[in-house]
Amino acid sequence: MSKEANEKELVPYLEKMGNYEISYLPGSHFIYKTEAEKCKEIIKDFLNRIYE
User: Fold this and answer.
1) 27: containing domain
2) Residue 29 domain-assigned (yes or no)
3) What domain count does the chain have?
4) 18: left (phi over 0), alpha (psi -120 to 50) or beta
5) Residues 27-44: tens digit of each pLDDT
6) pTM (2 d.p.)
């Protein structure tokens, strides 16, 4: 999903839900496979902040 699509469609939904963060990682559709360590760190940091 492009940044423009995120701002138009995804962000309004997430704002209603609360506790969200968008992180942009360049790469393929399977970024969780090619950048597994970076994805892990982003998720761990986010969870640590919301559960403090």
Assistant:
1) 20-52
2) yes
3) 1
4) left
5) 888 888 899 999 999 999
6) 0.65
